[in-house]
Amino acid sequence: MRRSARVVMAALAGGALLAACSNGGEEPAPAEPATSSPTSGESASPTPSATGTDDDGSQGDDGATAAPAEETDEPADAADFGTEPQNDPDWPSGGSGDLLPTGVRVGSHEGYERVVLDFEGTGTPGWRVEYVDEAVEDPKGDVVDVQGDVTLQVIATGVRYPEGDDETGRVAQGSYDAEDADLVEEVRVTGMFEGQNQAFIGLDEKAPFRVFTLTEPARLVVDVRTTDG
């Protein structure tokens, strides 16, 4: 057999063998990593982008977006709107309790914008809400930068520190942008100290507000009246 003929036959045989192997043993291409979408709904809470862990073990975040506060519930004895400090009837009693702050939600409704602080656990948070000249973090004394021209300070009592690694990621902490509101610019939760949870609401202008709690689950609600209300 001539040399050129042998070369052609060898090439054909090699090609057939390669085709047979590729039909039966080809490895699948690696799958693209799955991405999860946040669950929507009335009780949804934001998932912060963690940038660090505070001394109490809770997670910080960098500009998470507050989930929408869609509910419009209010108790029959909800307080009137006003600009003076407001607190629950038992203030300043309180201290540590069984509540864990887990979320921040902001919503826009006819006549007002609503900020909801969500809690897990039993009981009802005590509270005091008032306008402050500066957002000062307790107990450090550091001035916190909050978006907006005026600031409402919100103190909730009856809270506890997180326990265990499975709970630290669920604690509401850090800054939450209020994309679903016009008057409310930002909600910043600075953290817990001696049974109190401190947060600041940054507003474009000083406006009347009202405060009340809701149950099942426990929620602390701050409504800020808008100019069209």
TrEMBL record:
Domain of life: Bacteria
Leader sequence residues: 1-19
The UniProt record lists the keyword Zinc-finger: no
Biased composition (Low complexity): 20-41
Pfam family name, one: AMIN-like
InterPro entries listed in its UniProt record: AMIN-like (IPR056303)
Keywords, ordered alphabetically: Signal
Protein's recorded name: AMIN-like domain-containing protein
Organism from which the protein derives: Georgenia daeguensis
ATP-binding as UniProt keyword: no
Domain AMIN-like: start-end pairs: 101-225
Ranges where the record places region Disordered: 20-105
